[in-house]
Design brief:
By secondary structure, the protein is mostly helical. 77% of the residues lie in helices and 0% in strands. The protein starts with a helix and ends with a helix.
């Protein structure tokens, strides 16, 4: 059975790339889903989607923070 939260994490992660506001939600959902999948002992699937959402969320968060810091320093 596929963990639906893994798909949700991937969608939020992809939305976080252009819209940084979704990054914390993607990180939270991806990490939670990935932990649940690992703890299920093979009953749940979707680890790739969960990790993909987690990575995309982290990437978006870092880009948002670097952009914000650059904007503050450059002004």
């Amino acid at each position: 059975m596929r963990d639906r939260a893994a798909t949700r994490a991937l969608v939020l992660g992809l939305l976080a790339l252009p819209f940084g506001i979704f990054a914390p939600f993607a990180i939270w959902t991806g990490a939670r889903s990935w932990r649940r999948i690992r703890a299920s002992g093979g009953d749940l699937h979707g680890a790739t989607s969960a990790v993909g959402g987690l990575v995309a969320g982290l990437t978006a968060l870092v880009a948002f923070l670097v952009g914000t810091i650059y904007w503050l320093v450059a002004s």
